[in-house]
Each structure stands twice: as structure tokens, then as C-alpha cells.
Design a protein that fits this description.
- This protein is α+β, with helices and mostly antiparallel strands.
- The chain has one domain: q2cbj1_9rhob like domain (Jelly Rolls).
- Helices cover 18% and strands 26% of the residues.
- The protein is built from 5 helices and 13 strands.
- It has a 6-stranded antiparallel β-sheet with strand order 1-11-8-13-3-2. Strands 4-12-9-10 form a 4-stranded antiparallel β-sheet, with no helix packed on it.
């Protein structure tokens, strides 16, 4: 079985994770602090093991990237009545790496949650895929992720170009049931509005990559 995201850049896997698996990984990631919209997950060996092969998320990522793929970043998001946040349209451009090396095409460099990040050349992002595991159902009223289907094929989209890109590609809402996994092309344009009817909305987002980085730069990993 193979999976292609070349047209829309997104695919939904319904009930891809069982109730028992979901309970297990929920215990590993723990809660999002009440004063934050999301947290970076790092240094949790049991979670890293679950995200690697033959776990359900790695099996899906391998359909796109091959069986050498591995998780390189994990984030846990939550949206509640008390933390009913939103974020505007953007592409995920930063990756976490072990150390800074001044090489062409990599930059700017930033620190996030005490970890070193850098914006790589677009071809690195194009070789990645992002999976989102839903712990809770996401109805149209509970701030589903919004995507611009096909926008991952446009390369780097500058901030001033985003309105035209949204008009050209359109907008799709990614509804979900508990246990669903959405898989995206990592550089797809996406956004999230405030929930109309706020309810708990926890999502584990994981970036996968198969290729090594060039010039001696190394993935930080999990």
C-alpha cells in the first residue's frame, strides 16, 4: 500500500488508533499546562518508542517516506474554554537540530523551549510529513485545523503572499473523531480559529523525516 499527498497534501485515517493505544499514549504525554496552548515533547523514551516502527503513526508515515522514517519533533496541543486560542495562516518552517553550523540555506536560527531550531531549505521540509493524532473529537464548532489544499506545492510562501495563496487554493476543515490520525505535507499552509463552542481538543502532532540533513547538521530527534 502506498499513499500520495501530491494533490491536496492531507489525508484522514479514521480510528487509526485503538482506545487502549490512545489511553497508553495519553498517559505518556501527560497534560498541557493550563497556561499554555501547547508544549514540545522531548526526552520521553517510552513515547519515542511508541512513535517509532511498528507503531500506528510510524506505519502511516512509512507509506509516504519509507521504512527508514523516524519522528523528529513532537508537540502536544490543547484547546479549552479557558485556553481558546487561535493562530493565523502559516507554514511550519523550523526544525529542531543538535547544534548550530553556519551553512548555506539554513537560517534564521532560534531557540524554542530551550531547544535549537532552524529554518532549512524548502527541499528538507518537502521531504517530511506531519501526523496529528486526535485524543478528542473535533467538530466544525471546535476549531478544526484549517488547511489550504495543494499549497505545499508552492514552495516557501511569504507572509504577504498568504492571502493570494488562500484565495487560489481554498480552505478545507479537518474534522476528526477520537483516534483519528490526519497526515499532512509538512509545509502545507494551515491555521486554527477560536472554537465557537469550546471543548477539550487535544492533539499530538509529530513530524517524520527519513533523510539525513546535509552539511553535518543533525536532527535533534525526540
Amino acid at each position: 500500500m502506498t499513499l500520495s499527498l501530491s494533490r491536496d497534501g492531507a489525508e484522514r485515517f479514521s480510528l487509526a488508533v485503538s482506545e487502549s493505544e490512545l489511553s497508553g499514549v495519553e498517559a505518556l504525554v501527560g497534560p498541557v499546562p493550563s497556561d499554555r496552548a501547547g508544549i514540545r515533547l522531548y526526552g520521553i523514551p517510552e513515547l519515542t518508542s511508541w512513535l517509532n516502527w511498528p507503531g500506528p503513526m510510524a506505519r502511516i508515515a512509512a507509506l509516504l517516506l519509507g521504512d527508514r522514517c523516524r519522528p523528529v519533533r513532537a508537540l502536544l496541543f490543547n484547546k479549552t474554554a479557558d485556553m481558546n486560542w487561535s493562530f493565523g495562516w502559516h507554514q511550519d518552517r523550523a526544525i529542531a537540530v543538535k547544534r548550530r553550523i553556519a551553512v548555506p540555506g539554513f537560517g534564521p536560527w532560534t531557540m524554542k523551549d530551550g531547544l535549537l531550531h532552524v529554518a532549512p531549505p524548502f527541499e528538507v521540509l518537502a521531504g517530511m510529513t506531519t501526523l496529528r493524532l486526535h485524543f478528542d473529537p473535533v467538530a466544525a464548532t471546535n476549531a478544526p485545523l484549517l488547511i489550504a489544499p495543494g499549497s505545499h506545492n508552492a514552495g516557501v510562501i511569504r507572509n504577504e503572499e498568504i492571502p493570494d495563496a488562500i484565495a487560489r487554493y481554498g480552505v478545507a476543515r479537518c474534522l476528526a473523531d477520537t483516534g483519528d490520525i490526519w497526515v499532512y505535507a509538512t509545509p502545507i499552509l494551515h491555521a486554527s480559529e477560536r472554537a465557537e463552542i469550546p471543548a477539550r481538543r487535544r492533539v499530538l502532532q509529530v513530524d517524520y523525516a527519513a533523510a539525513a540533513l546535509p552539511w553535518g547538521i543533525e536532527w535533534l530527534g525526540l
